């Protein structure tokens, strides 16, 4: 018989709906049951693409003898961390305070009110069974000690919210980005690209900052490090060489062995990152990665409605990575004429060797070097690889596919909307803008309530769960990006409505920073509210909001927005400087203050055409505004002249005399 999770929409929760564990979804029903039975809560958190989550489900949660103990001694709650990042953040903070580390599956024990007192990650079945008995015994016989432990953990979690104002607040000067970059560069891996050590995560926010810093400083070392990283990832096993798209991370220092799940948020941010690098460098191989990654997204992660699914699992047929790896014989069967050559190209039985005679496809040599060694032209090699990839992809699609997490998350969709818009900006490939607009309209129609508040997740026509700060911040940023490529002012007004909602419902009276969840009942865990400021694999919602406020402040001449953003960034100044790897998105915001926001306002009949000619030169600190007819948007005030197309160039509040030709734009203002 199914348990209560059968009524959920999350694929991860539905995977547990037939466990013998009497799972509850996270909510008041579970808390009421814990109070009524006077039993501790067992809160188990994971996500559908998590390999070790699947392992623990199979080894422990599917076993009747273990489930019987769980059901008898605990009220068991299953949480999809992607649906409820607010819940995950609370209990992850608790486990990290206990052990100085965390991960998934996350298994946390809590008092009936939800206050955590102990937790860990993956446990083997025998460990898990012993732990259940120990925790239950402590709850029954050392209850007061557990309450003290829970109280201390809650104090520790609350203490993490305290980001003290600097004793002597100062503006962000031009030296600050230099200091931040120098501190960050100490962690660069000069051999393999990325940051030092293993496992290796792509960390797009870090390399976005590095490229932004290059734009500001012209320091070629910064560009070289970023390009080295992007090339190394694209040539490694972390990148799907025949299907496009990136896996979540590599387990080694060489980008070779991926953790094979593919996440929407990674691929969205990486498309934006490669687009920025292509804009700066013009290197065509970066454009190919953008094209292949978007093709992967269209093929595997796009819903009929034009929105984007969450993830593909790492596992198929009970094995991690089984769908993606190849033997030499399999390659030769599909490519009898060119198999030997392409096996060498992809490192088969050499650099790509993995487990059980199988290989992870990667590129040990650059295409230029490989083509030269094989006496091929660059175009001949490109055509050969394209043909072989199509045949291998067709053959691979006959295999048992990894599971698809087909829920739609507003924050991750927003990242992909921005990615498509960013890709359009550097190519002007219209179908990519069309896809971004379609997904944005879906978000407006399906996931924004009439009062302007957001719902976080959508599936089968049903939107649910209150939006968190990241949802609002990422969607507002996506709408601003859409405006900058379409010049439809509706997107700016939509971003402003989201921002005003954040100011009303996420604001903290004692800080310029925002809470992770809104202040109305049911919007987050009741036991504590959390302020989150660090970048993980996704950028900090607070950091993104600082950019949104800066940009909207200029478009709408709203000084309260820009003042709030400056106070947020100043509050974070010490943390950015001390540990820029964890605050890279903040570092990019700080750089906007250091360099100043540049605005290019274009008015008149040819405004849109003029604006598009400037796309390829636009840096992160440049805001474009264009209108062919008079507009009420404050940035256009007193800037129209009948029959003329004019370009107004401003740095902060200082503007030059308008010019009438894009070639006359001061390159320093781009």
Automatic annotation (TrEMBL):
GO terms for biological process: carbohydrate metabolic process. It holds the Pfam family Thioredox_DsbH. Transmembrane segments: none annotated. Residues 2-156 form the Spermatogenesis-associated protein 20-like TRX domain. InterPro entries: 6-hairpin_glycosidase_sf, 6hp_glycosidase-like_sf, Ssp411, Ssp411-like_TRX, Thioredoxin-like_sf. This is Uncharacterized conserved protein YyaL, SSP411 family. It comes from Lentimicrobium saccharophilum. The lineage of its organism: Bacteria, Pseudomonadati, Bacteroidota, Bacteroidia, Bacteroidales.
């Amino acid at each position: 018989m199914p348990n209560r999770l059968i009524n959920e929409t999350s694929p991860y929760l539905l995977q547990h709906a037939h466990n013998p564990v009497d799972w509850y979804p996270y909510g008041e029903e579970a808390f009421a049951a814990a109070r009524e039975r006077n039993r501790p809560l067992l809160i188990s958190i994971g996500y559908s693409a998590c390999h070790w989550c699947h392992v623990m489900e199979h080894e422990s949660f599917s076993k009747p003898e273990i489930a019987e103990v769980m059901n008898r001694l605990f009220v068991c709650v299953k949480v999809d961390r992607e649906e409820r990042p607010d819940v995950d953040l609370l209990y992850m903070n608790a486990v990290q305070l206990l052990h100085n580390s965390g991960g998934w599956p996350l298994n946390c024990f809590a008092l009936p009110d939800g206050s955590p007192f102990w937790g860990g990650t993956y446990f083997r079945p025998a460990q898990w069974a012993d732990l259940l008995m120990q925790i239950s015994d402590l709850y029954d016989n050392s209850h007061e000690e557990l309450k003290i432990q829970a109280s201390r953990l809650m104090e520790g979690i609350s203490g993490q919210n305290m980001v003290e104002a600097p004793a002597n607040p100062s503006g962000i000067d031009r030296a600050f980005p230099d200091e931040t970059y120098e501190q960050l560069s100490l962690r660069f891996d000069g051999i393999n690209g990325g940051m030092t050590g293993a496992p290796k995560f792509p960390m797009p926010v870090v390399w976005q900052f590095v490229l932004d810093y290059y734009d500001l400083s012209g320091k070629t070392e910064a560009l070289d490090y970023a390009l080295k990283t992007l090339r190394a990832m694209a040539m490694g096993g972390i990148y799907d060489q025949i299907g496009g798209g990136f896996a979540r991370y590599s387990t080694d220092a060489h980008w070779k062995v991926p953790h094979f799940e593919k996440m929407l948020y990674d691929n969205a941010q990486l498309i934006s990152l490669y687009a920025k690098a292509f804009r700066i460098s013009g290197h065509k191989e970066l454009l190919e990665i953008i094209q292949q990654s978007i093709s992967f997204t269209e093929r595997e992660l796009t819903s009929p409605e034009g929105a984007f699914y969450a993830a593909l699992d790492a596992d198929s047929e009970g094995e991690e990575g089984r769908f993606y790896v190849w033997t030499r014989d399999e390659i030769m069967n599909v490519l009898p004429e060119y198999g030997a050559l392409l096996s060498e190209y992809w490192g088969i039985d050499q650099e790509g060797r993995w487990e059980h005679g199988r290989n992870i496809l990667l590129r040990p040599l650059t295409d230029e070097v490989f083509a030269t060694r094989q006496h091929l032209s660059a175009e001949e090699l490109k055509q050969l690889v394209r043909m072989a990839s199509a045949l291998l992809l067709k053959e691979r699609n006959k295999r048992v596919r990894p599971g698809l997490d087909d829920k739609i998350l507003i924050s991750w969709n927003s990242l992909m909307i921005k990615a498509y818009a960013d890709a359009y900006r550097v190519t002007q490939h219209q179908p990519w803008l069309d896809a971004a607009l379609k997904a944005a309209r879906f978000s407006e129609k399906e996931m924004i309530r009439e009062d302007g508040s957001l719902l976080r997740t959508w599936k089968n026509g049903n939107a649910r769960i209150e939006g968190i700060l990241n949802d609002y911040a990422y969607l507002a940023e996506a709408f601003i990006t859409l405006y900058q490529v379409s010049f439809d002012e509706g997107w700016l007004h939509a971003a402003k409505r989201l921002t005003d909602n954040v100011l009303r419902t996420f604001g903290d009276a004692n800080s310029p920073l925002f809470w992770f969840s809104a202040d109305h009942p049911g919007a987050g865990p009741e036991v504590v509210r959390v302020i989150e400021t660090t970048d993980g694999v996704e950028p900090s919602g607070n950091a993104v909001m600082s950019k949104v406020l800066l940009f909207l402040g200029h478009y709408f001449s709203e000084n309260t927005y820009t003042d709030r953003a400056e106070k947020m960034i100043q509050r974070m100044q010490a943390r950015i400087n001390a540990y820029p790897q964890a605050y890279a998105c903040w570092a990019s915001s700080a750089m906007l203050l250091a360099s100043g926001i540049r605005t290019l306002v274009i008015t008149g009949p040819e405004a849109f055409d003029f604006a598009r000619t400037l796309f390829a030169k636009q840096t992160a600190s440049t805001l474009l505004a264009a209108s062919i007819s008079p507009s009420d948007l404050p940035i256009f005030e007193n800037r129209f002249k009948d029959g003329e197309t004019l370009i107004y160039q401003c740095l902060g509040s200082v503007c030059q005399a308008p010019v009438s030709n894009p070639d006359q734009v001061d390159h320093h203002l781009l």
